[in-house]
Amino acid sequence: MRDKLMPDMVTALKEAGLADGMAISFHHHMRNGDHVLNAVLEAAAAMGVKDLTLVASSVFPVHQPLIEHIKNGVVRAIDTNYMSGPVAQAVSHGLLETPVIFRSHGGRPRALREGSRSVDIACMAAPTVDRMGNVSGILGPSACGSLGYAVPDAECARHVIAITDTYLDKPLERVSIPHDRVNSIVRLDSIGDPKGIVSGSTSMTRDPVALAIARKAAAAIRASGLLKDGFNFQTGAGGASLATAQYLREDMIRQKVRGGFLLGGITKYLVDMLEEGLFEAIYDVQCFDLAAVESIGRNKAHQEISADTYANPSRRSCVDYLDVVLLGASEVDVNFNVNVHTDSNGIIIGGSGGHNDAAAGAAMTIIVAPLIRARLPIVVDQCTTITTPGKTVDVLVTERGIAVNPARPDLADRFRAAGLDVRSIEELRALALSIAGEPRKVAFTDRVVGRVEYRDGTIIDAIYMPA
Amino acid sequence: MAQTIPTPESSLGKPLRATAGSLESNDIFIALAPGEPGGNEITLESIVMKQFGPAILRVIEESLAEHDLTGVTVTAQDKGALDCTIRARMEAAIRRYKEARS
Amino acid sequence: MKHYRSLLFMPGNNPGMLASAGALGADAAIFDLEDAVARTEKDAARILVRNALTELRPEGIGVVVRINALDTPFWQDDIAEVVKGGPDFILQPKCTSPEDARTLIAAIEEREREYGAGRKPIRLLTLLETAAGIENAFAIASAHPKLAGMQLGAEDLTLELGAKRTPGGEEILYARTRLIMACKAAGVKSLDTPYPYVTDLEGLEKDAAFSAQLGFDGKTVISPQHVAAVNRAFTPPEEQLRWARRVMAVARKAEEEGKGAVSLDGMMIDLPIIKRAQLILSRAGEAPVSFTEDTAHA
Fold first, then answer.
1. CB B80 to CB A375 under 8 A?
2. In terms of domains, do A176 and A85 share one?
3. 3-class DSSP state for residue B89?
4. Which of A51, A224, C52, C88 is packed most tightly, with the most Cβ within 10 A?
């Protein structure tokens, strides 16, 4: 057996043939605790490599050193699904010469599979690796649970380096990425800070407005007629979304409903619902907290799935089987388009992640958002950036009323029959303005700093640099 | 007993500066202090500066005019307060300011 | 105006809370100038509350302001500002006698005259939270036609009694039933004390159910998280609602067709039956039965 273990990162990158202009990829399961992306770029910079394209499924605040690598010419372009923190702010202000390509969690594996996005080297954070190169996400000090977003990279990249802090002599019992997809292994002292990888516990919000929104969202799910045996459900980890899941849990217990699968980013609250027998299975593309990591390690009903299985639009993926998804918003416009890319000042604060994938697939897509956030109306005439097209969004739930997409009169009828406070989205917009006042429009330059690629590959919007 | 010289902060043992509000979200913190006679000087920081900066300044100016106050500096730190909150905090600060000087 | 199942206390100096008052599911909001506001912020809070009443008034729910007690230096200034905003009710803390209630009503009326006609008269709710207050319950309840209801305040009361406050509330049973009796006898609304253990939602369910069982008309709450459970406890069950809706439908039809007497399921639908149906519907927030009609006893 050829030993795949490399003495250090530079040797591994040289062996992989790293050269100017290449595309190197990263997954984001280490989230804001990630040490791998910074370590690889530091080695690449030391090697004098230039003009790399960074294909990272997400970029977090911990990746601040990337700013220097861009200024020094090591990195020339970014292809990602989500971006927050200092790098996102710097990009918003024109750090990169070429616009960032923003994809969705489903669009990224589609692009990798069809070859419209090629990757030379996948630099994969690997919590535990055995001598053969098998990778597991559930063991080791940097355990992150599911490695779902690493799968397409491992299968599509020309060369795969597994980067680990836990190297086993014996073969792994359970494998997320099989050894035949891994070309070499590099050891670091630590590939991640557990505090940043998973939060110890995701705590339930106490914000009264978020709880009020959650009550209305749970009532909307009740009234939709979708809450019956086999109900498939996805929720984000935002305050109002998680609180809605808690109210939904009470409804399911009361109505003796047993759901099908839970999908998406997994938290303790969803694990509890599985263990209480409220759902048959969790299909987990990413763990958000320690309880989820522990659960995926021990519970057979808690299954790891790849980004393809989760949301790839070129096949029938899990999102297509969703009954209800709950998603957040930075802005929602009167045509139900949703922005989770930029804030009201036009600064990049995120990206689709799975937002437009789940919205496209679910039978009912609910956006939960306050009508006004720090005086800024969330319902706007036109989104600063379109992340998710309005035709895939069915319902907006705010603390002051529910708006239903006119394309779904069936839902509006059901909600009204259940006594819910249904209003037109224009009415919600007018209400927000009457409370907050009319905000002045933020001015933009004509410089494009990002392009939003919809899950199917269509470019649906551009992100401009604020003036 | 040595005679004390009045400091800018205190003439009759009362502070000349008055504040109202807080730095909690949806609130505004207002500080009033003596300034150049004749006019008013306003310094504003806001988390919604781009969208509402001029509107907030207008409300502050209106409040000063309504209460016939000139010759003050106003320092305002806004955390997304609505107009009626800004007016309430200005009114409280102005009343406190006048009381401190009466 | 709806029947108030839940009345939610919110700090009078917190602009974010005041702005969201209408969205939290409570049938009424109580803007608090008393315990929730520090002594040094009383002046600022009453201005903020006045502006919230005039400019951010929550739609479709009742608005109450709790002012400071008569034995403080604050209550007259509170009245001077708050009456300008015209809340539906002013809640008087530490009310111990009918004179307390009449003193406050006179002060409110004086301000109302000063600020001009054309506004809806503000009515009074009193908070009984002393042994003297409980002992004078009926006299207070009958003190004035503008007194619309009374609330029990168990925290101060149990402190005065030297009683231990418990989730089960055995120590306040006498005060609760005494207050309900006085309210019913005088024809005003009876409102229960808040459940003080914020995170104990199970205890809250039991306490709210017990409160409804005793006959309280509604219950005050100190946390938005308590609103839904209290609304549930004070909402009649679905089969009662169905019955009440059918009674009203039959009664309306009879009236339209000019029939004198009608029956439903073999039961004569007469005035007491209609009143019971109306009460049930009003408790579910379905029919507009206002405080005014209920308390027009003078």
1. yes
2. yes
3. helix
4. C52
Cα of B95 to nearest chain C Cα, Å: 9
Q: Can you read off the two tokens belonging to residue C282?
A: 């009003």
Answer for the pair C219, C191: CB distance below 8 angstroms, yes or no.
yes
Give the structural domain span for C173: 6-233
Domain boundary among A145, A166, A197: A197
Q: Test B85 with C15 for CB contact under 8 angstroms.
A: yes
In order along its 467 residues, chain A shows pLDDT tens digits of: 568 999 999 999 999 999 999 999 999 999 999 999 999 999 999 999 999 999 999 999 999 999 999 999 999 999 999 999 999 999 999 999 999 999 999 999 999 999 999 999 999 999 999 999 999 999 999 999 999 999 999 999 999 999 999 999 999 999 999 999 999 999 999 999 988 887 766 678 889 999 999 999 999 999 999 999 999 999 988 889 999 999 999 999 999 999 999 998 899 999 999 999 999 999 999 999 999 999 999 999 999 999 999 999 999 999 999 999 999 999 999 999 999 999 999 999 999 999 999 999 999 999 999 999 999 999 999 999 999 999 999 999 999 999 999 999 999 999 999 999 999 999 999 999 999 999 999 999 999 999 999 999 999 999 999 99
ipTM: 0.87
| Contact yes or no for A403/A431 (Cβ under 8 A) | no
Of A345, A373, A437, the CB nearest to B50: A345
Chains with 3+ CB–CB pairs under 8 A to B are: A, C
Our count of domains for chain C comes to 2
Bridge partners for A331 per DSSP: A339
Residue B13 resides in a domain: no
* CA C154 – CA C169 distance, rounded (Å): 9
Question: A374: which chain B residues are within 8 Å (Cβ-Cβ)?
Answer: 25-26, 47-48, 79-80
**How many angstroms separate the CA atoms of A292 and A263, rounded?**
12
Cβ under 8 Å to B: A residues 2-41: none
Residue contacts between A and B (CB atoms, under 8 Å)? 38
CATH number at residue A38: 3.40.1080.10
In a domain, C159, yes or no: yes
Q: Please give the helix or strand (H or E) that residue A465 lies within, else none.
A: strand A459-466
C187 plus C273 within the same structural domain: no
